[in-house]
Amino acid sequence: MIELTTARLESYLQAAFGKDARLHDYGDLASLDKQGMKRFGYGKPVLLRYEVNGRPHEGVLSVMRGDKYGHQFYWDRAAVLMFQFETSARMPRHVRPMGLGYVDAEGNLCPVHGPQEFFILNEKLQGYDYFHDLQRIRSEGLQEQDQELTRGLARWLADVHAQKHADVHLYFRRVRELVGASECIMGLVDEAYPHPYAEYPEARFEALEHKVLEWRWKLKRYAHRLSAVHGDLHPWNVLVDGKGDFSILDRSRGEWGEPAGDLASMAINYLLMGLYDRPCLQGDFERLYQTWFSTYLEVSGDEQALEVIAPFFVFRALVVASPEWYPDHPLQVRKGLFRFMENILEEERFDWEHINRYME
User: How distant is the alpha carbon of residue 26 from its chain centre?
Assistant: First the structure.
């Protein structure tokens, strides 16, 4: 809830419309009764009467109600309000938006002027992409420091996932997004592959989607697993210093989710690198993969992740097999990833210790 005062409202009006803006009155939309307006929140719009350069105006100040339909977080609601601000005036007879803003941590109302795009400024970290280590391993062989780095990453991830959150509807949302979001399974099927695509005909895509929908209903039984997650953990989002230390970049897709998604996101890259040299996972990358899973499961104790991980592997396999995003893969690499993502959906529990069963 937001504490409204005359000073805060007038400060907003002057920041939005100029120093000559003056607030005359405000209150409940129907009666201008301020008694109910001391705290302003979701579903409680406020009528403002003010002037700009001597001309009278009226406006309705409102925020969007948070709900379980994909609006749990303020950034969800911000996207809706930005859409309304940008497009409403272009529709005949639609109410015209007069201002867009946000409330800061001190309760001040801050205008956003003419937004066109947003940006973020992050700190600069030292290091290089973890992917370069994987390339080195392929050409020069595995070193003990590589194993130790993988153990460190797995321990860190298990610690992140140890933070739990009780919100059944948010877990359902994350599963819906996994299946149907434009960045996830159905979006990748539509946009990350040409159609028709000789190496994976549409009949196989259709069968894959049907199977994933079956898994969506299975995952509904696992809402108690909602945990803190990264959301996009892969070798291009990990910076390493060559001495065993690492930093993480680009947390994505929400603060909470299914921890098996992060587990699959990194693991698929060990499979990808291994497929460059063999039709199954053997040698150095099999050892890294085994280290990744064994360490994570030992620290987290989360054997249940193996019951839900399959559709998350499908998502990540679709990413790294995409001819649009990874145009240089040899054909045998893509075929190996396709075999894996189809076969893994056929079992109720992922047999991580015998991954090559899914490569046949």
Answer: 39
Say whether both 165 and 276 belong to one domain. yes
| Residue 184 shares a structural domain with residue 79 | no
Question: Directed axis angle between helix 310-321 and helix 202-219, to 10°?
Answer: 150
**CA atoms of 18 and 264, how far apart (whole Å):** 52
Same domain, 81 and 225: no
* DSSP states along 182-236: TTSHHHHHHHSS-SS-TTS-HHHHHHHHHHHHHHHHHHGGGGGG-EE--S--STT
Q: Respond yes or no on whether the N-terminal peptide bond of residue 323 is cis (omega within 30° of 0).
A: no
132 and 107 both lie in a single domain: no
For residue 107, what are the β-bridge partners? none
Contacts of 71 (CB under 8 A, 6+ apart): 64, 65, 77, 80
Which range among 58-62, 89-93, 216-220, 339-343 shows the weakest confidence by mean pLDDT? 89-93
Q: Could you give the residue ranges of the DSSP H alpha helices within the chain?
A: 6-17, 74-87, 130-140, 144-161, 168-180, 185-191, 202-219, 259-275, 283-300, 305-308, 310-321, 331-344
**What is the rounded distance in angstroms from the CA atom of residue 275 to the CA atom of residue 267?**
13
Cα angle, residue 255 at apex, residues 180 and 321 outer, rounded to 5°: 45
- Check pLDDT > 60 for residue 21: yes
Domain-located, residue 123? no
Helix ranges, 49-143 (H) = 74-87, 130-140
CATH assignment at residue 161? 3.90.1200.10
Domain count, the chain: 2
- Give the three-class secondary structure for 32: coil
**pLDDT score at 121:** 83
> What pLDDT score was predicted for residue 42?
56
Q: What's residue 31's pLDDT? A: 63
Structure tokens of 322? 């995409």
Domain range enclosing 78: 2-112
- In a shared domain, residues 211 and 349: yes
Residue 118 lies in a domain: no
